[in-house]
Amino acid sequence: MTTDRTMSLMLAVLLLAIVSSPSIADEAVPEAAAETPAAETETAAQGTTETEAVESKDEKPPEPPPYILRPYRVRVGIFVRPAARISASGHAELLSETTTALNARFRQGWELDLGDVETEERRFARSLADFGESAWTEAFRTLDVDKVILGVVTKVGARFEIEAREWDADSQTAGVTQRRHAWEAREVPLVLADAVGAAFRASARLDVLEGDEYEFLIRGGELPPAERSLTPFPVGSYLIPYLRYLDRSRKLRSIQRIPWTYLQVDEQGRHRIRAHAVSAFRAPIPGARRRVEVGAIAVRPDLSETELTIMSRGEARLPLAAARVDLVPRLPTRDDPVEERVELVTDRNGLIRVPANPENPLQFALIHSGQALLARVPLIPGMASQLELEVPNDAARLLVEGEVSLFQGELIDIVARREVLMARARNAARQNRWDDVDQFLLELQELPTLREFEQRVETLQVRAVFEAQQAKDRVAESRIKRLCQSIRDAAARNLDPIRIQEFRREMNELRPRG
Amino acid sequence: MSRSLFSTSYDGPQGMRLLAVVLLMLGFCSFVTAQEPDEELPKLAEMELPSVEDLLTKPPRDWIILNSDEVVIAEPVAPRPDTLAKIAEMVEEKTAARRNASAEERETLQTELNELQYLYLILPDVRGAPEVRIPVRRVKEIWHHEDLMIRRADALIQEQDLVRSMELLNRLQLTRPDWPGLAEAHNQTLRLDAELKTGKGQHEAALVVLNELFRRDKEFPNLAELFGESIGSLVTSALDAGDYRRAHFFLNDLRKRFPDHPVYQSHAGELLRQAREHVSAGQAAFDAGEYRTATLHAEDAARIWPPTPELKAFHRVASERYQRLHVGVLESPMDPHVFPFSTNAEEREARLTTLTLFEVDRVRDGTAYYRTRFFDEWEPTDLGREMRFTLRQFRQPSEMQQVLTTSDVVRPLLRRLDPKHPEFDERLASYVDSLVIHSPSEFSLIFHRVPPRVEPLLADVSLGLLGESGGFGTQPGFGGGAEDTAEEDAPSLGVDPGGFALRDAGERIMSYERKLAEPNGLPQYHVAEVVEHQYDGFEPLLQGLLRGEVSVVPDFPDWIIRRMQSDEVFLRKFFILPYAAPTTHAIYFNPKSRPLRIRELRRALAYAIDREKVLRDVILRDEKALHGRVVNGPFLANSPARNVLVGRRPYDLSSGLAMALAASRQLKGKIPKLRMVVSPRKLDRAALDEILSGWKRIGIEVEILEADDPNPGAWDLAYRSHQMFEPAVELWPALTAATRARIADLAPFPDWLSQELIQLDRTSDQSRSIEALHSLHDHLWTDAAMIPLWEVDRFIVFRKNVRGFVERPMHEYDKVDRWVVDSWYESELP
Fold first, then answer.
1. pTM for this predicted structure
2. Residue A429: strand, helix, or coil
3. ipTM given for this complex
């Protein structure tokens, strides 16, 4: 929750950032911009109050280089399995050549420390994909590096299998495992360098927030890689934002991920990008505050699919089984209902497997429950192996939907039977079969009346609304009332008692006197 | 054909001429005007017998043959038959009476005697129908019209014109059955008929005629030879076809008529010799320990010649050591069909060949209780989160299951938990967290969600070997994928769990043999082989049971059961036992059928079935419907799952029509022709015909898919009969028309119904599960998600040489390994 004080601080920071930082337009002249952004950004990041200035004066940490000139301190650990059958000399050569290849690619952008895996790294290297992010963070957060990348070389048959996975200290996240292969030993260093390079995810930090537009500074943006293809954050690529909460000494206190929010790069500068947010929330990313940094890390949807688990909110947190999930490339509107959609159904564990789509990485998942839309979230399949989504518990409303559906069926049944009985009674009256007419009138009288119908709907509504109120779900409450009202209206239209009365009068008029 | 003056025609001018001739010849007819003789009376030798047509269609005429061999044709004379003899008798009587009569009486008697000297005739076709008389003494013989018919019939028999001869004799039989000579003539006709039929090779038909002849005249000449010829041929052909019973029947028939008939002696001797050969061979096989071969020889000997003296003792020894149970059925699991579910025959086979971890032991108040062949104990711990199973370490020699180790039991369980395996069971996997093996005889299932009852979850976990008959490879719904996996797993096959295995699959006979044979030295042996004999209908099946071809019939229709129950003679030979639970009949809808997603159409179908009538008139054929009742749920009528507030949907064609109209509006004005599948069970088909006619009346056309339908998967409705003991577990697959509960199958259902089924599935508490079932029952009924029809009590019939069975069996082969078949065969010839 944002207090007035923090708001004012944030505004101050923003104002400073807006006034001092160069815009994308300024980057048309990179030479002129090269000097200023770092200092300005640091100013914005460090805060402005007098008290903090005093505190920082006491601690006096060593001045880091400006963010956009700050290279990544990258630790690359290589684990060559015995199955790879690489000799000692070949092993040394492998390390050396891989170092050379990486340095050639990332140049000053990386402060590379490449070597054999150490004890802790070895544990992870045995099975890169099996350890979760928390395990990586637990193992490596104390290291004084920005990235830990573990590369594994093994041989299956005649083929060298190469894997690499990266852990990022700033976001404390682990990327997906990159897999390559080579047929000859001499290719291994280059392929390994490829895998390590592919595993690397560049970072950025929020600089300017203007409405829905975000400008980020690129870490080491002024230290570009050798190849243009390695330049981070090309236009159209995606980032995941996160918030870094710092303590007074500007040490990291915690990291908060911003769920179901992605940033898509609209413009790319040398050390600055402009992006817009795609999120399940209206204002997903707050501006940077005094002790809050907004970071972002590149997204690499390299997996073939993502397992999305949908849970029902509440104490039990039950998986939402058999829920219909539509995957659409853009949000449907009244004018554009988006026909091209993939329909999936969650399994017993509330899980669906969302396939990656290289052509259109960002998808929207629309989670339905009956006629209601429970959630609408963006996601990039292939970015992570597993995601979890919580949705409101819709049980009470769905129950009402079912009951209302059955009421509708009954209503149709009653109306149809009434019409048939009336027709048969008229026919009998024409043929002077008045005993039959009386029988039909009796059957008409026994059909459920509007009053009975309304009472049943009322009972249903009271019970369901109570449940929704207990769950403090106002949306569900309102939907329940709407559903009940709809069936009440339909009943009132179709079970008008006057119609029966008129029919009785009609029969009485036709009936012979005496 | 030209005819002479004295032809057999009595018409017009010829008749006139005949009259004149008669008058001339007689010359003493005082009251007839004399006429010029122009012709003479015809001689008998010149006469032709009247034709069949004349005899049958024209007025009857008698031939009066004079001493001169001349013939006078007249209208039938009286008295008849034996007119002359009767006249003579009357003359004698009156003559005797005259001796003791008074004078007045004597005069009267004399007058009468005078009259009796003449035979009074009416000449045909003479105007005024004049009566003439001929002195009796001049009459040599009278051939009455009836005699002429017999004579003509004899002539026809000589000409082998059987049809016309029978025509004449039958007419005579109708009018004068007592006419002298008629019976002989009839017998001759029968003889000729039999000879003709025998000549044509129609021995059975000839035998029918001969039987009639035998009934009429046991002493008829050459009758034994005629019988011998026909029966000899019939016996030979029956033996050639291997139909010994038929041969026995004819031989016994012959023996009863002619005890020492050479044909009987010859065949009986030959059959006795063959039977003795089998007894000898069987004895040798038995001594060599080949018990099945010995039993087969014993059965063969009993089939070839039951009266074989030494057979009885050998049959007892052999057939009680290796017991073969003969079961009569109508449907075979091999029958082709398009029914997407297991047929009754397939289920029956599965119960023999597939052993499951748990099976329903009994049903009390609609609740199923389970038993197991494999566990000594299964105890929940950790508040039900762990279920520890202890495997049995021993088995009785008679039990058909093997003693298993944990690996044998765990392997099929793991298959159920492996999402990539065709046997994957989503529901079980959703409960089970892990599986822990403690020892070769103990393992635990750890649940992350406690199931209300564990037995229903594991009840269909079969322990069949992979790829083997009876293993999962033969289970419906797994398809080719199972075979692939079976090949993969083949090297790691475990211990055979036991049960029965298919041994022979003939065209009309299938046999299943116990996998684990009982060892020697037991005081009592049990069923070693089940032989199913397929029949074409219920009546032939009943005949088979009565003849002793089969000893058990698991499924008779109710009207035959009631007939048996009221037959004391039958009950002396057979047991009629009710099954522990009735069978429920219901119509299910294919969730993929688009038209039937319209609720109004489903309701229309439901309204238009007169369930009471079909149950009463077709299924039971019993006005009182003692063994059946209309139901409103797919489960047992006394199941706790039943919501008592759910009413009955009346048979109401008006409502059905109204709903059909409402549905047709949603279907753009026309309801498409629906396609229906039904099990091959004959009784179900009969009920369906009645249901279809009701639907037709409200304008809904439904066609039945036959076995050769090119698109069997595209069905809309299914008529099923089943037993649903665990609605909480079985309702979901029943609705989705699948073998197991799978989330993916719920896609066509509305979300509220899907979620209700899922919530029911997730409920761990038994009482909440019942509550959920009540709600679901109400909703399914209102939604017409299926059409429950009726439930029927079924019965199984055992010949009394079978014992050891359960008094209230759950199914056809309930604890079949405990059944004992005592030696019995029909020793009397039929």
1. 0.75
2. helix
3. 0.76
